[in-house]
Every structure is written in structure tokens, then in C-alpha cells.
Write a structure and sequence with these properties.
The chain contains one helix and four strands, in the order E-E-E-E-H.
Length: 63
């Protein structure tokens, strides 16, 4: 099994509650640090599309 360690965003600062990401066997996994047992798994292409959409502000109206 090939995987990387969980990483959190630098925007999280020193807070413990954050979204964490890692790669495992060619997929991307996401979890909320305070709900670590729940993991969302997706493809790198889908994760990249999510990041691009977020950076473009496509979800800002949900805030």
C-alpha cells in the first residue's frame, strides 16, 4: 500500500479542527480532523477540479 501522511492546510494555523488530505494507492482522501473515522475518497482529477472551483469562488454563495 502506497500512501502519504495526512496533511492539513496552512490556512488552518494552529487550530486542531481542519480538513486533512493524503494520497493512497493513486487516490486522494479527505477527512475532517475531529471526525477522523469518516474519510472521503476521490480521484486526483476530481480533487483538482474541486480546488480550482473553490479558488475561483464558485462556492462563495454558500457561505
Amino acid at each position: 500500500m502506497t500512501y502519504t501522511n495526512w496533511q492539513k492546510s496552512t490556512f488552518s494555523g494552529s487550530t486542531e479542527n481542519c480538513v486533512e488530505v493524503r494520497t493512497i494507492n493513486g487516490t486522494v482522501e479527505l477527512r475532517e480532523s475531529d471526525q477522523a473515522h469518516t474519510i472521503l475518497q476521490t480521484t486526483p482529477a476530481t480533487f483538482a477540479a474541486l480546488l480550482h472551483a473553490t479558488k475561483a469562488g464558485e462556492f462563495d454563495h454558500h457561505a
